[in-house]
Design a protein that fits this description.
Largest sheet: 5 strands, mixed, barrel
Order of helices and strands: EEEHEE
Shape: globular
Strand order of the largest sheet: 1-2-3-5-4
Number of helices: 1
Radius of gyration: 16 Å
């Protein structure tokens, strides 16, 4: 049996940061998904929060795409809407605080496209 762990999600990004270490540069950020609630007659009411999750990109090409999106925000909090392809991964907080050692779910991004 083959295990599949590939997802495609859409949303906007914010808080994109890069970090460079001995293994190269990685990018992190926050995927924000919102949709509009509807009134009984079907008209859009207001944006409501659906889900948010931490993202990480490890390869240079994807890191570059995320950095370019961040530069293109032009003073806005969020990027334009994007579609991300990737997988869910578990990471552990590396600090020496025992209560912070719980596993945390992240979305590892392999591909970025602007909608």
């Amino acid at each position: 049996m083959e295990i599949k762990n590939e997802y495609t999600v859409t949303g906007t990004l914010k808080n994109i940061r890069t970090f460079t270490g001995s293994k190269g540069t990685l990018a992190t950020g926050w995927l924000d998904q919102r949709t509009y609630s509807r009134l009984p007659d079907g008209t859009a009411d207001r944006a409501v929060y659906v889900v948010g999750m931490n993202i990480v990109a490890l390869d240079d090409y994807t890191v570059g795409d995320l950095v370019d999106l961040d530069k293109g925000r032009q003073g806005n909090e969020h990027t334009q809407q994007v579609t991300l392809k990737g997988r869910m991964i578990t990471r552990f907080d590396r600090r020496d605080i025992p209560e912070k050692r719980a596993p945390q779910l992240q979305f590892e991004v392999f591909e970025v496209s602007v909608n």
